[in-house]
Amino acid sequence: MEHLYLDKIKSYESAPKIVKIFSDREIKMIQDFYHTLPEKVFNKKQNIRKKVWIQNYNKELDELYVKKLNEVLGEFKMDTLKSEKDIDYYGIFHESFSPLKLHVDSGFEEKSIIYKQIVTPLSPIGDTVIYKNRWYGKSANFTIDKNELKLKPELGKNDKSCKHLGDENFDQEMYNKYLTHENIDNLKGLKIEMIYQWKLGETLIMDRSHIHCSSANIKKNKLGLTTFTKK
């Protein structure tokens, strides 16, 4: 799959940026909200727990969150990346106990005009490594493992791909500092655009075409909220 409206998607793209759109009180409200939600999945392979921000579960917080995003993003629609058509949610809470590997959250609909991805740290632990390289196909996990590449993805799940690769060797110093959880050969051709060190009270806004991953520097669990948008 490749997105059909590439010119439109690219017209909305920009460099990643850090903004402060939530007060300390509002961050605390979102943290408390997370603990009230039912668990959606605990992926033991990825060592990550996920909960979804269910629409109408807390209407006051729903309105606050959408209002704050509108202020910084302008007009947008939520993209829930889901196959359950009867369930609406505003984002995914992800509590990670180990670093997430190389991937992209570009969606599953070829007609979709993907827009921004919003990551709000709810713990002061963690880094997000964003690459200059972009991807305009289906959401994917990037790997050079031949066995993984043979696997057919489930409906609504990321593809496995090695088509992100380039020819130039990855920077060894940056690899040693941030990315030892990856195979360095899986990073060939990639260039880092930004390494965002998580801070409570901040929000990272990046394009959904950006290839990214966590850094290897997770000493204990990190908690964040990610929302995907489209035009």
Strand content: 25-35%
Low-confidence stretches: none
Number of helices: 5
**Helix residue percentage:** 10-25%
Largest sheet, in brief, is: 8 strands, antiparallel
**Oligomeric state of the chains in view:** single chain
Descriptive overview:
It is a single chain. This protein has 231 residues and is α+β, with helices and mostly antiparallel strands. It has a single domain (6-230), classed as Jelly Rolls. It has helices at residues 6-11, 24-36, 59-73, 146-150, 172-178; strands at 17-19, 41-43, 48-54, 77-78, 89-96, 103-104, 114-121, 127-134, 140-142, 159-161, 192-197, 203-207, 210-214, 222-230. Strands 1, 2, 3, 4, 5, 7, 12 and 14 form an eight-stranded antiparallel beta sheet that branches. It is globular, with a radius of gyration of 17 Å.
Name the descriptors.
alpha+beta, 5 helices, Jelly Rolls, 14 strands, 20% helix
Helix/strand layout:
Elements: H1 6-11, E1 17-19, H2 24-36, E2 41-43, E3 48-54, H3 59-73, E4 77-78, E5 89-96, E6 103-104, E7 114-121, E8 127-134, E9 140-142, H4 146-150, E10 159-161, H5 172-178, E11 192-197, E12 203-207, E13 210-214, E14 222-230
Parallel strand pairs: 9-10
Antiparallel strand pairs: 1-12, 2-3, 3-5, 4-14, 5-14, 6-9, 7-12, 7-14, 8-11, 8-13
How would you sum up this structure in a few lines?
The chain has 231 residues and is α+β, with helices and mostly antiparallel strands.
